[in-house]
């Protein structure tokens, strides 16, 4: 009986503490890469974005961030996920028996939820890595009933391309950024409102002949009401 954690079949849950224990590329914890440790999940291939679940194609997976759809869930040729792990509370991956609230995706649903801001005091973090720099800031707004959480990342990978002796790479560029903003306000024990916004951008140019640009721009407002226990 101790092995039975719930009645939901085909769902895997990972919290951010578990995800951070997985070895990271370039020192950056990656949510998408952590899914590859789960049974039935395989990589599409080296240097490519996405993942396959039980033989399905990568475009048959739905990726949600606070119920917002991410059509481009990775950065920099698939090396980084589009969500800063410092903002994440947990990840749920539905591999079968997908609940009807998610619609009709064939292969899987990856549902990423972010943290609420610190309701007690203003706190923040910052980090510098070989390819990216990032920051987070969170705290209360006026009172403990209203909190905010904001975070962003930016890359400076162009300097790495300049170090490659091949002229084809010296003339290339690759960059991305992402910004996430969360607000939450508690009206009462039964009512709470959430406001989330997310934007990201990817651009690269390979030797003057191949260019690529992609953006995510999402916003959502949620009202949670508890009718009874």
Characterise the protein shown here.
The protein is mainly beta and 229 residues long. Helix content is 8%, strand content 48%. The chain contains four helices and 15 strands. The strands form four sheets. Strands 10-11-12-13-14-15 form a six-stranded antiparallel β-sheet. The protein has a five-stranded mixed β-sheet with strand order 1-8-9-4-5. A hairpin with a 1-residue loop joins strand 11 (132-141) and strand 12.
Quick tags:
229 residues, mainly beta, 6-stranded antiparallel β-sheet, 5-stranded mixed β-sheet
> What strand line-up does the widest sheet have?
10-11-12-13-14-15
Broad structural category: mainly beta
Proportion of β residues? over 45%
Largest sheet: 6 strands, antiparallel
Order of helices and strands: EHHEEEEEEEEEEEHHEEE
Task: Supply the number of helical segments.
Answer: 4
Topology at a glance:
Elements: E1 11-15, H1 16-19, H2 31-35, E2 41-43, E3 51-53, E4 61-65, E5 68-69, E6 74-75, E7 80-81, E8 88-94, E9 108-114, E10 123-128, E11 132-141, E12 143-155, H3 158-162, H4 167-170, E13 173-186, E14 191-206, E15 210-225
